[in-house]
Each structure stands twice: as structure tokens, then as C-alpha cells.
Amino acid sequence: MAGKTSEYYKKNPKARKKRLEQQKRYQKTKKGKAIKSAANKLNRKLGTYGNKDGLDAAHYKGSKTKGRLQKASINRRSRLKIKKKKRKK
Predict the structure, then answer these.
(1) Which pLDDT tens digit goes with each residue over 8-29?
(2) Residue 8's pLDDT is what?
(3) What is the pLDDT of residue 15?
(4) CA-to-CA distance for 58 and 69, rounded, in angstroms?
(5) Phi, psi (rounded to 5 degrees) for 55
(6) Residues 6+ positions from 59 with CB-CB distance below 8 Å
(7) How far apart are CA 43 and CA 73, in angstroms?
(8) Which of 7, 68, 74, 77 has its CA 20 to 30 A from that of 1?
(9) pLDDT tens digit sequence for 37-48
(10) CA 15 → CA 8, 10, 29, 62, 76, distances in Å?
(11) How distant, in Å, are the alpha carbons of 14, 21, 27, 58, 84 from that of 42?
(12) What is the pTM of this model?
């Protein structure tokens, strides 16, 4: 079952294209590169980088260098919970 956001972008190709272009620009920024680099570094450290095992490196709160293996779907879901909490404040 896909999430609401996923469904929205599947139904709205213009919006999807705009979002992907924005993401492409963000990935080229200093901050975007740093986040991607830290994630890849931890994935390699935990031995899950590129092996298609369905696991992600889940960072411990406040750490960019320490973490644990977690199913990708659960790890990405937890990020959404954090965003929802911030919106409520």
C-alpha cells in the first residue's frame, strides 16, 4: 500500500516532475551532499551498502556516524513521524 504522498505524485505528473527537479537541485547543495555522504558512509560501515538486502542504516538520534540496521520501510516511516510531530508544535 502506497502512502498519500506517493499516490498524489502518481496522479499528478506535473507536480512529480517539479518535485524531482527540486530534489535534484537539493542533492547538489553542500547540505544535501553531506547528508548523502554520511548515510552512505554508515551503510558501508554496517555492510548493507549496495547489497539489495532491503535494509537501511538507521541513525541513532543526534548521530551521523552511529546507527543500526533497520528495514527500509520502517526507517523511512519513522522520518515521517518526526515531521508530523514538528508540524503539531
Answers:
(1) 999 999 999 999 999 999 999 9
(2) 93
(3) 96
(4) 6
(5) -110, 150
(6) 38, 39, 42, 66, 67
(7) 16
(8) 68
(9) 988 888 888 888
(10) 9, 9, 22, 32, 21
(11) 34, 27, 18, 9, 26
(12) 0.61
Within 10 Å of residue 42's Cβ, how many Cβ atoms?
Answer: 23
For 50, the grid coordinates are 549496495
Instruction: Give me the residue label for grid cell 548523502.
Output: 36
Q: Quick one: three-class SS letters along the chain? A: CCCHHHHHHHHCHHHHHHHHHHHHHHHCCHHHHHHHHHHHHHHHHHCCCCCCCCEEEEECCCCCCCEEEEEHHHHHHHHHHHHHHHHHC
